[in-house]
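Pasting two entries for a bug report.
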Amino acid sequence: MKRTASAVWHGDLKKGHGALATRSGVLKNTPYSFVTRFENEPGTNPEELLAAAHAGCFTMALSAELSRAGFTPTRMATQATVSLEQVSGTWTITAVHLENEAWVPGIADGQFQEIAAGAKANCPVSRLFNAGITLSAKLEAG
């Protein structure tokens, strides 16, 4: 299974602007820029999108793990916070913090904590941060 998204950028970093799109159409010409990324102006940014992906992925993984253990969650809510910081002069994602609240009838806290830790370790987005990344770059003339 493969999913795709694209980005188009015009101009330099600080005054330029771009748009993001996904093949599904959920994002379509969604604007982003320096100020939406570094100055908290309205709009999206790559870190916010990673946070949304991680929150969604972890919550689905937790639901699956709970179901395998014989529990059906009533409701779960997860917030992911992605930290982007300067490390030796280079912008780096240094951490992701997942904060989850779950309503799961009949489960003991110790068992829930164990299942949640497994979901955190095994959701595909958690593992992404250790993934190999490949690149194919092509320079267009003109």
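Entry 2 (this is the one that rendered wrong in the viewer):
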Amino acid sequence: MEIVLKKFSELTNFELYELLKLRTDVFVVEQHCPYPELDGTDLDAVHGMAILDGELIGCFRVLPETMKRPVAIGRVAVRQNHRAKGIARRLMEEAVSYTEKTGEEEVYLQAQAHLVDFYGSFGFKEESDIYLEDGIPHVDMRLKKSVTKR
């Protein structure tokens, strides 16, 4: 398996289609959660894609810092038939590594509540109570690093 990082403008039409299909399959269909998957932030994101034998099997995105929050990792997803193989962990390692290479001091994410321990294993700390986002329990989490921003 290889993980490829690309800015939105670097994605091919096929890669974009596969990313959106994977995310829709996981976050909308599997989780029975009709929500706006196309949220307007993909254009500014760096997209991570886990590829195995030419197939997209997992993904994440890293969103740039805004006035309201630091850099954020989101849309971490793995195809159902590839779960429990360490792929999500590998994706998160790559996402966190990317933020380290860009010199980010803090990284934010909105974790589904049942994944708090998973994200906690990367150093993320809870910073909110559980709240519903699109009908699914979530917790805001933040990773604080002591690095010098470049």
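Dev reply: Rendering is fixed now. As a check, the viewer should reflect this: The mean pLDDT is 93.
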